[in-house]
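Local shape tokens:
==================
===
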Amino acid sequence: MTRRLSVVFCLLTLFVQVLPVLAQPAQTQVVPAPPARDLKYWVLLTDRDRVSPAALSPTAIAQRRTQNLPLDDTDQPVSTAYLNRLKQAGVQPICQSRWLNAVSARLTPRQYAQVVKMPFVKGIQAIDPAIVITSIDLPANPQLAPVMSQIQAPDFVRAGLTGRFVNIGVIDAGFFGADSANALKHVFARGGVKRVRDYVNEKKTNNDLLRTLESSADFHGTEVLAAIAGSDPTENIQFGLATDATFYLARTDQGNREYRGEEDNWVAAMEWMDSLGVRLINTSLGYAKGMSNPKDNYEPGQMDGHTSLISKAAQIAADKKGILIIVSAGNEGEDRSWRIISTPADAQGVLAIGATNARLWNRIGYSSIGPENLAYLKPNVSCFSLYGTSLSAPVITGFAACIMQANPKLTNKEVMAIIEKSAHLYPYGNNYVGYGVPQASRALALLRNQELPAVPRVVQATGKTMTLPISTSEVAVSVFHKKDATHVLQQEAVKVSNGKLILRRASDEKQTTVDMKKEVIEVIWE
């Protein structure tokens, strides 16, 4: 599985020198036979202790009641008796998941053969240790301002929406220097980071995590946090929308060695944040391929929303815990052997975020596309990011925080629907950019129950070419050629000449989306 921590970009005033990384993720797979060496596994259990859940805070329980989400089996802890049986067999559990009713542990071949036969063990799935970190050079002057203009950030600012009173969880690879970064000083000065937890090295204190650099990947969470809430008044630059939100940070991914498997840390962090009542979580991590043994790699067809255990956990969070999870779609768009989104972005209940170009708002080359085997649209929406979907996802997390501040009673699925409906292509989404770029003005109108302007229109066409009159000041517009309502054959920039656009239909093209940003035309070929 390839780890897909997107490229770490340099915040303009963050650090004098930042080492960029593009990381590629890890994932789970069914292991049919004992391994030749010690590996980390999920041990899936048959049933649970029937006790009252003790791991949820009063805040979390109150929020569940507000959303009419009952406490159920997934809130009950793993069986103490089963844990003791495993320990008696010499197995030391690492993480426990009440959602999945499972524990993670390292097993020798002998322990594997012993544990798989235990009557309370439903199955075993490996957590692959191979995650390869790759690094590339970044431009000297990264540009962050375009995305704030693209999503209409000033509209939220004028409405007084800054994420205040919204709790945001960030699950990432590290938060080195976050408390001293210029773009985040305002967050720490007001005590906006409430709790920090390191699942990679639990012996570390909060200060150790923020001030100890193990690898360049430790900058990644800092960059993500700045893209959610960053603001530098000295330079008059706003990096993120949720400047007044409250944060809970979890490090689940280690960047100082090439091989590791840490999906269990991710699930543990999700459950920890749920227990504290956090309803909005950004996770700019993803898992796809890169196994030590290529025969054990996930196939692209398995990015289906229910094969991986972390997608199952993400769906539980969405359906049963009322959590809105915002996930980067992935950076494999130019990898011909993969191209599609990684998990948990494939889960139906999460908001998967792709990346667009700055000018045309179509898919930027690296951004992963949605698999054609899914019955739902992925990615859900997109926005500009020059350095990976890891940094487009936090922009939309800030967008979601503004919506949740405006109406705290909205459920996670209602917030998700508002974000999708606020996007500039809605309802003509596609598997390249989803419904397009969310617009603050449209989100505010939806929050006020106002009608949206009727920007999309449908045009019927016949034959192989069509001349389409359009009204735009753009020299060229983005065109998506599709084989059906959502699946793109190709995207292109088409030149506008004298107020007209000439469309040339491909042999298997059924629909075409003409994207002029402020207007959308859907061409139906007969």
Observations:
- The chain has three domains: 28-127, 132-288+301-447, 456-525.
- The first strand starts at residue 22 and ends at 23.
- The domain at 456-525 is CATH 2.60.40 (Immunoglobulin-like).
- The mean pLDDT is 85.
